[in-house]
Amino acid sequence: MKRILPLLIITLLLLTISEAQNNKPVDRNNSMKPLSELLNNQKKGWDVITQWSSNARNKIEILSKDNLRADSALYQSQLEASSPLGAVVYGCGGILIEDGWIRILGSGCTRLDRSLPDWNKGKSTFKSKDQSNFLLVGDDVIGGIYGMKTEGPDNTTIGKIYYFGPNSLQWEATGLSYIGFINFCFSGNLQSFYGDFQWHNWQEEVKRINGNEVISCYPLLWTKEGKEMKSNRKIVSIQKQWELYHPQLKSETNNVLAKKSPVRKSTEHSKSTIQKSKGK
Predict the structure, then answer these.
(1) Which end of the chain has less neighbouring CB within 10 Å, N or C?
(2) Closest to 103 (Cα-Cα) out of 40, 65, 145
(3) Segment 54-95, tens digit of pLDDT
């Protein structure tokens, strides 16, 4: 065990450096790379994902991929399959964490019928208040969205994962890279991060909905009534939730799936809670 731990730490550091170079969304101004070029060293990235999944502390389910959808998703996104993000897009239909409480986007499948490139159509180009862009990489069942910053005024945060919460209606820094986000989902203390917003027997409700839906709660879960679990919950499409929080994009994206709903506390709370829960 003492020998394995340093190797895992070194692997994580090398992957963080590598993903900063390879996790680059498609630039339509340049020529598209052929699929064969994107598939170079594909086993490298996916081996890390499967290794971490086998050692995961949380309940995870890697959804089987459809080969044609995987080829299409990787080509559309123009990600290298050797990178962590490209590996997830090409290697699976998606990943469900804790019965689907968190959904990590891949190439799409029956149970999570949204590929990463399709879900980002009309969304990843939307600029936040500080003129940043985010590639949407995952979401949760209560409407929170995880996005990787691809453009913004602060270059030091490019490639970092942010969390959009409808309580603040802004992107909140987590301090994690994409591979750090995967590790957090696999083995982080999710109860510490989501504890206030998980009701009694939430697992049974989550199991009954698909990956294109979210549970909308009213009063919202961070209100006094919501915290006392007096909220009324209903299932809505993730597209409807996205349009609720981004109404100006409705006409652009009404033919594409989307998402959003209740979320969590403040920006600093989200970052500090994730940082604390990574090692638990």
Answers:
(1) N
(2) 145
(3) 999 999 999 999 999 999 999 999 999 999 999 999 999 999
